[in-house]
Amino acid sequence: MAARTQPVVVIGAGMGGLVAAALLAARGREVLVFEAAAGPGGKIREIEVDGARIGAGPALLTLRPLFEEIFAAAGDSLGGQLALRAEPLLGRHAWADGTRLDLPVEAEAAAEAVGQFAGPAAASGYRAFRERARRIHAALEAPFLRASRPSAMALATQGGLRGLLGTSPFTTLWDALGEHFPDPRLRQVFARIATYVGSSPLKAPATLMLVAHVELQGLWAVEGGMARLAEALEALARRHGAGFRYAAEVREILVAGGRARGIRLADGETVEAAAVVLNADPSALGAGRFGRAAAGAVERTPVDRRSFSAVTWAMRATVEGVAPAAQTVVHADDPTAEYAELGYRARLPAVPTVTLWAQDRMAGATPPPGPERLLMMVNAPARADLRPEDAAAIARCGETAFARVARAGLVLQRRPGAEMVTTPADFDRLSPGNGGALYGPAVHGWQAAFSRPGARTKLPGLFLAGGGTHPGAGVAMAALSGRSAAMQVIEAGV
Ligand SMILES: Cc1cc2nc3c(=O)[nH]c(=O)nc-3n(C[C@H](O)[C@H](O)[C@H](O)COP(=O)(O)OP(=O)(O)OC[C@H]3O[C@@H](n4cnc5c(N)ncnc54)[C@H](O)[C@@H]3O)c2cc1C
Fold first, then answer.
1. Ligand 1 centre from 5 Cα, in Å?
2. Of the residues 43, 147, 167, 288, which has the maximum number of CB atoms within 10 A of its CB?
3. How far is the CA of 267 from the centre of ligand 1 (A)?
4. Rounded CA gap, 239 and 479, in Å?
5. What is the pLDDT of residues 294-321, one digit of tens each?
6. pLDDT of 183-203, one tens digit each?
């Protein structure tokens, strides 16, 4: 066994890596974090556009109590480090014919909004959907979300077979939503939850309704932007003695005597470690990006099981017409055609669903006069390593997306030099090894949730944390995985 005086090395300062680092350091372990980028956060990225810092990743936080638990476990308080404000709307949903639905977070206000939009039967359907999402979440929280690596068998044993079947694993999300929402627009609205984990509602199990329940617990805007959460976790880890090295790309996980023993950086420097926690996408391991010796530590995600990538436009623009909400979704005309193009055909959809985050309008804030900070996103296939989209295809996609948003009533006055595009190829550069997939393996089919790698790998001394591992993608799930990795390192006694 490696000497206890050696550090735990964490590769990557994304959400999973930051949480693992903070919790391990708080437990008295020496921790060193090596991050290829210039600062913490990973996909919680900020970029400078037209003189302003614009969030180019997730905009809102879910599962606030989880982050309170993490800060408390490290002897601190979330509220003491960050100001969080509740976002009242789950989202503004808009269609190209001008139809709109504002969906509040609060249960009865949301049911009322759905009723006004599509009639009293739709409001009942919404209440039943919410209750089903709550039951699925309750059945899965302890044996799945908080377990380090659950199996379907363990779930059936702990929760009972009826409990497992009650999570609707064998029905697709799309079919299950059809039971609650005869109105195709509402089915389209709630099917978007599959895309939060980069998956298609046509293939994802209805079990994913648990994501809807997580969101219904509340959405929080972090004062100053989500990047402040990453910075606060970094500061928390540093207060417990963790060291951070940026612009430090790890090229190899060193293996000796059948276990991970350290890392080699791009400049050739080696660092010995008692254990290594990898926060990069696990498929980068299988792709050989951390050397041949560690490549077999997890299964590589097959190309057709990758989650979606995205094209994003971070911009400063003046909005005319309908004001955007904190999150506005402009829906495609034909969702099944869009998901088929993204999934089966693996190409940019001809008519995409467009999500727009208005960063100066979070939690009811009023934007300053003039151009405001916006992030626009469409889903894209993750094939940047095999068949990257050419510049013309990205430009066409952008023209269509801006036109769709305008048809829904939000006219964005674009200005040259005030826009920055991030493509699947860019995401693949930022997080290599999976063609630009943003959420690890897709959650398609009932087994998908159980086949994600857990915190432990086949290689002793090597642990995983991040959205590509169990329990799944998204800021909160990646944080859970980081906590799980820290616990596994401690349990392994390395
Ligand atoms: C546009 C966009 C919108 C999103 N919207 C939402 C949302 O609304 N809600 C939500 O919950 N989630 C959302 N997500 C997803 C969420 O951001 C991620 O699931 C989560 O942040 C991933 O965290 P992670 O722990 O996997 O680490 P990552 O963010 O993937 O970070 C991994 C880190 O490892 C580093 N790294 C990789 N290889 C190496 C190496 N060889 N050496 C050193 N460092 C390395 C990378 O540079 C990176 O910093 C969104 C993501 C994007 C891009």
1. 30
2. 167
3. 24
4. 19
5. 999 998 889 999 999 999 999 999 999 9
6. 999 999 999 999 999 999 999
